[in-house]
Amino acid sequence: MSNSFEEEWASNEDQLMREANSLGDLLARMRGSFSALPISGKHWERVFDNAKDLPPTLAGFPLWIGFSVDESRSPVLLDVSVLGGTRSADYFMQCAKSGNGCLSIDRIASLLDKLDNAGSSLSDIVGNRVLVEYPIEPDGKAKSDCGYFLYPIQPTLAGGAAGQKLSEFHAAYDALSAVSGHAGDGGRRRYADSAYRALDPGTRIGAMGAFVSNPDLFRITALGFNAPGEAMSYLERLGLSKQQSRIASVLERLEARGALSGMQLGVQVDLGESGFAPALEIQIFSANTIYDQTGWFKDRECWTELIDGLRREQIADAEKLMGVAEWSAVAKPLIGRSSVFLLLQRIHHFAIILDNNGKLRVNAHVFLLTTRWPGQKD
Questions:
Q1: Is-above-0.90 flag for pTM?
Q2: Beta bridge mates, 223
Q3: Who contacts 306 (Cβ-Cβ below 8 Å, separation ≥6)?
Q4: How buried is 337 (Cβ within 10 angstroms: 0-12 exposed, 13-18 middle, 19+ buried)?
């Protein structure tokens, strides 16, 4: 992280600290910006309540909200980025040191500490970010559990035998296992290795994570598949032919309609000591927003065919899809109490999910970032 970025982020964090007492308070004040999204008012209140224990500075870094666009009552997923050396990271570290934190905070703080270890090469592999995912049920306890993920720096954990570095893969795997108290070796590690080794050139490990509520479960996301056939071949190499056949027909029909033109796919799998879980997720990203930085907030058109294809497949609700489409590619002013901010929002990806019961579901994930108004001085 360069000094200029550090200074800009620090200044943005200072303003966000003056703006609200918590991330939950800040998001609640933004609720008008979320009106198009197909999330009930009651569920939004649960999101705000769960985020009241988190610092407002998290809004100044990439933040994702995932939700169902089918008829299921799935949890809303709130994903926040915690970068080492920021006020957000300090919050987790101080809570853990005080002894007033919970198991979730302790594990996040432990990961941040490992990334900051000068004698470790871990940050060279995965950078300095921990992504934390909070699944928030429409009805449930006040504090949600979480998953915690590392994001390998592209193309550190690239696919193809020539470019693979198993020792670096193990460094990330072992760090996540250590903070959860899970043994580093054993069946789970062997299955994780197979998920890495099965990658073709041009693909890579995009994320690796574990969960507070289920320390035996490990999640791997592979990215960079250019067509459904590539993703399905990967699943076959993992021995997931049953899951592959269940989801392949949907992807093939979407491809035939042109709904996947200009898209890239990701494959998310869960694994444990006895093998891969029956559930999996196929993620669909706009290739333009991956490779073209100017596309991040100019990508409205690229989602049109996919949204139409999901509607015609009747695996997603048409009205909910329209709400997602309205969210895409917007940058607008946010009048705060202390200053004016710029709220950046866009569609991040869609996910076709095959759950543990063999049922297909569809989620949408949207991105938002709150930053100082351009040119504004402290």
A1: yes
A2: 204, 266
A3: 254, 259, 260, 263, 284, 350
A4: exposed
Whole-angstrom Cα Rg for the chain:
20
Dist. CA 169–CA 180, nearest whole Å: 17
Question: Residues with Cβ < 8 Å from 57, sequence gap 6 or more?
Answer: 13, 16, 17, 86, 87, 88, 91
Residue whose structure tokens are 């198009």: 36
Query: CA angle at residue 41 from 35 to 43, to 5 degrees?
Result: 115
Angle (CA) 206-179-148 rounded to 5° is 40
Average pLDDT of the chain to the nearest whole number: 90
Instruction: State the residue for tokens 């000068």.
Output: 118
Half-sphere exposure of 159 (CA within 13 A, CB side): 20
Single-letter residue type at 149: F
Are the C-beta atoms of 67 and 77 separated by less than 8 Å?
yes
Q: Distance between CA atoms of 92 and 55, rounded to whole angstroms?
A: 9
Q: What is the pLDDT of residue 170?
A: 95
Q: Which is nearest to 332 in space by CA: 21, 24, 35?
A: 35
Q: Which pLDDT score is estimated for 185?
A: 78
3-state secondary structure of 355: coil
Question: Roughly what angle, to the nearest 10 degrees, separates helices 228-237 and 241-256?
Answer: 180
Phi-psi region of 273 (alpha: psi -120 to 50; beta: other; left: phi over 0): alpha
Please tell me the predicted confidence (pLDDT) of residue 99: 82
d(CA 320, CA 311): 10
- As a whole number, mean pLDDT of residues 173-184 equals 91
pLDDT digit string, tens, across residues 197-250: 999 999 999 999 999 999 999 999 999 999 999 999 999 999 999 999 999 999
For the segment 162-176, what is each residue's pLDDT rounded down to a tens digit?
778 899 999 999 999
> Where are the extended beta strands (E) located within the chain?
63-68, 76-83, 129-136, 147-150, 204-211, 218-225, 263-272, 275-286, 330-335, 340-354, 360-372
Q: How many CA atoms, within 13 angstroms, populate the side-chain half-sphere of residue 189?
A: 17
Q: How far apart are the C-alpha atoms of 96 and 104, rounded to whole Å?
A: 10
